[in-house]
Amino acid sequence: MAGSGKLHLRLDSDPLLIVQDLVVQYKVNRKSFVSAVAGISFDVLRGETLAIVGESGCGKSTLGKAIMQLPRPQGGTVVLDGVDITALDGNDLRDVRPKVQMIFQDAISSLDPRLQVKNIIDEPLKVWKKGTAAERSVKVDNLLNSVGLDPVVVRDRRAYEFSGGQCQRISIARAIALDPVLLVCDEPVSALDVSIQAQILNLLQDMKEKLGLTIIFISHDLAVVKAVSSRVLVMYLGKICEVASPDDLYARAAHPYSRALIAAVPIPNPDVIVKRISVDGEPPSPVNPPSGCRFRTRCASASERCAAEEPQLQEVGLGHFVACHHPVTN
Amino acid sequence: MKKAQSLLIRFSQVALVLLGATFLVSILIRQLPGDVSLLINPVASEAERASLRHELGLDRNYFSAYWMWLSRMFQGDFGFFIFGGKVLPVLKTAIPPTLQLIFYTQIVALTVAVPLGVTSAYKQGTRFDRFTSTTLFSLSSIPNFGIGLILSLIIGVKIGILPPSGYKPISEGLIDHFRLMVLPVLTLAIAPISTYTRLLRAEMIGALREDYVLLALSKGLSDRRILLRHVLRPSCTTLMTSAALSMGGLIGGALVIEIIFVIPGMGTQLAKAIGMREFLAIQTYVAFIALFYITFNSIIDVLIGVVDPRTRSRRA
Amino acid sequence: MSEILKLSDFSVSFDTPRGDLHAVRGVDLSIAKGESIGIVGESGSGKTVLSRATMGLMPSTATCTGTVEFKGAVISNLSRAEVRKNWGTGMAMVFQDPMTSLNPVRRIGSQLMEALIVRLGMSKDQARARSVELLERVRIPDPYAAMKKYPGELSGGMRQRIVIAIAIACTPELLFADEPTTALDVTVQAQVLELLAELRQEFNMAMILVTHDLGVVAGQTDRVIVMYAGQIVEAASTTDLFRNMKMPYTEALMKSIPRMDQSSGQRLRVITGRLPDPTTPEPGCSFAPRCEYATDKCRTEKPPLVTTQTGHQYRCFFPIGGSL
To answer: Which residues in chain C touch residue B212, judged by CB atoms under 8 angstroms apart?
Structure first.
């Protein structure tokens, strides 16, 4: 994939977030750069859950952080609620930050283990001067209640006393304390046990409905993504492969990489015959990405054109876009 | 090509640190109270004092005086003593004893600490482990001049199996040289032995919990092999860093110990020079001490890179 | 089928400041030569402790009781030095995290050759040649170059292949694979699972695949054991287990995982609560506090492990679909 293009943007539907041509580079050494995100455009409608899927090193986490300007992207624009936040500086940017909150994979280490739970959740409220101490205390209790923790039991305990699932609940309470409009969840359940994972996914769903949140859900787990998302964006080496609704993607993936990803997920049913159309090898180094389509080195249907020309996103079905010169059809 | 480049960068770093350290010292020395020219010759005439001040560079500003010293150093002129004589010959006799003292101390400290650390980590929580750590802890809490005096008194004077003080160069007989070195080296080594043992023990206990130790075990390797081949090496990095850092303390310690054991090394000379306000000599001595420190640290840095490949890319 | 491993009433407990922690409780299990068994459970279920303790890789704070027989000989009462003779050559292990299971400061070649030289008495040259073969076998591109590399220079997938090469170097008859693909990406996971299956065939090696992922188990094993709170709560052939789950815990686990063959946007079923505290065992069934079918009997009386005529085992008074 290697795809660029903006055909999939829905600018007339007033998206909450519009990201265009986003580029994030890291310095590898004095001379070379890695483009972890290499010119990506996408939008997220209000109330939507956009899932960003890909394997490690594809740039999905970097993309999530770049939306929050952490670190500042090297190129492109991020328009949140009509404001181009890439153009903001200092205090203006600080004022916008609470609107976007993040939840991380490792909930336990994303909380300061020695802080009491009430202080963890109160901190953002205090910093942004949301109400008096008494008002904030009530708000903290409400937040804890809303994530399914009993404030009486929990508020005075310290973060290290909690399990991964409980820490993730605390993280969610902290994230929604400032009434964000956009929640970026970076692998929020991949460190959790399956039984706890379901609890957290359902909680996120509840929060979204109750608070009218818009969610960007970054994950490597296609089954989880299918359960929670309303639109899926598949990434490979810093580029977009495919954008589709989950049902479309899983039934009619058009990009060979999406197909391979889906085929590789083990199905908990011994009667399902495993189709072996998985790909060989591992992604090449992003320091020196392949020319043209970045997936071509592992792609069975790659041609000369794939090496010469970067595919652009094209519509293959309603709301289904793919960046591939040889899209797969059923 | 890349290697030459990084070597060049390293070299210029060393040079910069040396320049900075000596310049700072040159300013500090000038802050010593009292007019040196008066101190030396209280009945000197105004003209005599002015000429002395001129020779010492005291009539110049900090930069110009420093430059005077530095440019003379490059011409092989290591300065002179106000009370007569050149610094260079003194330096030549003072450097070897100090270097030997420090070098032997590091060797003794490491040869004692490595087996102690490895064994305590392996026998973690046993009586051996507790005994070692308590003993080392109590020993290291005595200041080294205290230990020096006690050792010198008991072993050197009361029991008399070793000479209580003095120094002989290697050229005057290897056995005599080492007999005289035993007590000062032991004295100096106690603090680093304690630090190294505790550090290595903690590092090894951490490393023993790593998955790769479990994998090594599941290959059916012996405990001994695992400890020495799989655990010691990754744990060494911290030990080596600590050895490099302890160099500063060791040099400082050596300077004191030399005085106690009457070793005519840098410490003895530096103490003398400070007492006599020998400006140029102090500056030159400090430059050499800084040079030891930096050279040793650079060597350790390179060695760490050899032992632990993870640090190579980090530094690049 | 002859047995390669047999556990009888095997228990492991740890001496902790809060009292004895019962990590594994009364496990009976036997594995035939060349068989592939999946042990499934969540973190804290005792699955990892069970596999490590079977091998004898336990710290001194652990107490193991019961017997372990390997190839017909009891090994649970042997000294560490005696047990060690089986490690590598009789049984070997692949760990979850390839980032930490290789020694970061030693070259791949030396880590691979080590066991060949020490355990099989090969010369350096023989060991080097064999190592290259092994690397080729686990499909490492350019094995000669890989021998000279440090683990830090390789990707997670490559490192896991190397760990596998190390594990099979002395052709063990039983391989413990503890979450071997959990830390890997899906496409790489598929490749590694395929590799393990091939090697198992090739060496007629029995495998104990420890995982939390029912999907991985479904495709890779002949038989599945479900563990909860240190006990076996259900055991059956893989097809039987997925077709007629008897144990409410297994069912709840199945229902709580998001699945690709279900339509999107559905609410997931949840197992409420958490695993019981392993230092204070429940008076009744250990799953009862979280079980939607639990009765008073479940909360006060311990259900025994029942074996049906088809060999399906479960530990429940009220199995799904009735008993038998």
So the answer is: 100-104
Chain A interface includes C191 (CB < 8 A):
yes
Across the range C218-247, mean pLDDT stands at 93
Q: Do residue C114 and residue B219 have CB atoms under 8 angstroms apart? A: yes
For residues B83, B85, B89 and B91, what is the CA-based torsion angle, rounded to 10 degrees?
20
Give the integer Cα–Cα distance in Å for C128 and C109: 7
Cβ proximity of B82 and B278 under 8 Å: yes
Given its phi and psi angles, is residue B143 left (phi above 0), alpha (psi -120 to 50 degrees) or beta? beta
Domain assignments of chain C as residue spans, ordered by start: 3-90+170-314
C:29-58 residues touching chain B, CB 8 A cutoff: 52, 55, 57
C52 Cβ contact list (under 8 Å, min separation 6): B214, C58, C93, C176, C178
Q: How confident is the model at residue A277 (pLDDT cuts 50, 70, 90)?
A: low
- What does the mean pLDDT of chain B come to? 84
Same domain, B57 and B168: no
Q: Which of B74, B100, B120 is the last residue of a domain?
A: B74
Q: Which of B211, B233, B308 sits opposite C100 (nearest CB)?
A: B211
Shared domain check, B206 and B57:
no
C216 neighbourhood in chain A, CB within 8 Å: 266
Question: What's the pLDDT band for A1 if we cut at 50, 70, 90?
Answer: very low
Do C92 and B219 make contact, defined as CB atoms within 8 angstroms?
Answer: yes
Alpha-carbon gap, residue B198 to B116, rounded angstroms: 9
Q: Output the pTM of the full model.
A: 0.84
Asked whether residue B168 is assigned to any structural domain, the reply reads yes
Integer-rounded Cα radius of gyration of chain C: 21
Phi, psi dihedral angles at C298 (to 5 degrees): -65, -30
Cα distance from B309 to chain C (closest Cα, Å)? 6
Question: Taking every pair of C-alpha atoms in chain B, what is the biggest distance, in angstroms?
Answer: 86
Q: Judge if B308 and B184 occupy the same domain.
A: yes
User: Taking CB atoms and an 8 Å cutoff, what residues of chain A touch C213?
Assistant: 266, 268
> Which chains form contacts with chain C, at 3 or more CB pairs under 8 Å?
A, B
pLDDT, tens digit, 9 for 90 and up, residues A63-93:
999 998 888 899 899 999 999 999 988 888 8
Q: Nearest Cβ partner of A224 from C214, C238, C258? A: C258
Instruction: Please report the domains of chain A, with CATH numbers, ordered by start residue.
Output: 1-81+217-330 (3.40.50.300)
Interval C35-62 mean pLDDT: 89
Residues B162 and B224 in one domain: yes
Helix (H) or strand (E) holding A27: strand A17-27
Tell whether B100 and B48 lie within a shared domain.
no
Find the mean pLDDT for residues A296-320: 91
Q: Is the pLDDT of residue B216 over 70?
A: yes
Each as own residue / partner, the long-range contacts of residues B27-33 (CB below 8 Å, 24 or more positions apart, any chain) are B27/B62, B29/B279, B29/B282, B29/B283, B30/B58, B30/B62, B30/B65, B32/B277
Token pair in block for residue C179: 């979450």
Query: What whole-number distance in Å separates Cα of residue A235 and Cα of residue A51?
Result: 10
CA distances B243 to A19, B92, B196, B247, B264, Å, are 52, 26, 8, 6, 25
CATH number of the domain residue B160 falls in:
1.10.3720.10
Structural domain of B304: 87-315
CA torsion angle for A33, A36, A38, A41 (degrees, to 10)? -150
**pLDDT tens digits, B265-301:** 888 888 888 887 787 888 888 888 888 888 888 888 8
Contact state of A247 with C263 under an 8 Å Cβ cutoff: yes
- CATH T-level fold of C3-90+170-314: Rossmann fold (3.40.50)
Total domains in chain B come to 2
Pair C321, C293: CB distance under 8 Å: no
Residue partners of A47: CB distance under 8 A and separation at least 6: A208, A212, A213, A214
